[in-house]
């Protein structure tokens, strides 16, 4: 099983959660540090940025689910999936994160305005 940090349309109550993650184990609310969130379209993207933080959720997923999420996120093109340290309820764990892989055209979403509500 893999752990994946999500911060946008895959979070509980959002557009793609039910279709992709409703059968996966929710491990809790979390954050990644040294990343910033931007409105890259009608959805968010995160990029490395020292001193910033992003709110999200962590799920334990099987390989099939991770492959399906890769397809949704256009992994390798729009986003790149990498393992980063995630702060999950006071504990640092490694988890997959989808990092924006294109130019930033939208505005930054402050930590206080997170999680993404787009």
From TrEMBL:
Active site: 73
GO molecular function: gamma-glutamylaminecyclotransferase activity
Domain Gamma-glutamylcyclotransferase AIG2-like: 4-117
SUPFAM superfamilies: Gamma-glutamyl cyclotransferase-like (SSF110857)
GO cellular component assignments: cytosol
Family membership: Belongs to the gamma-glutamylcyclotransferase family.
The name this protein goes by in its record: Gamma-glutamylcyclotransferase family protein
Taxonomic lineage from the root: Bacteria, Bacillati, Bacillota, Clostridia, Eubacteriales
């Amino acid at each position: 099983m893999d752990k994946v940090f999500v911060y946008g349309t895959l979070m509980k109550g959002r557009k793609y959660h039910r279709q992709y993650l409703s059968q996966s184990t929710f491990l809790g609310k979390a954050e990644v540090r040294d990343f910033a969130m931007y409105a890259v379209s009608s959805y968010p993207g995160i990029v490395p940025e020292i001193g910033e933080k992003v709110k999200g959720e962590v799920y334990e997923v099987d390989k099939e689910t991770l492959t399906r999420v890769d397809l949704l996120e256009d992994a390798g093109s729009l986003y790149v999936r990498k393992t980063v340290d995630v702060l999950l309820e006071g504990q640092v764990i490694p988890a997959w994160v989808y990092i924006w892989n294109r130019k930033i055209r939208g505005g930054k979403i402050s930590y206080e305005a997170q999680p993404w509500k787009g």
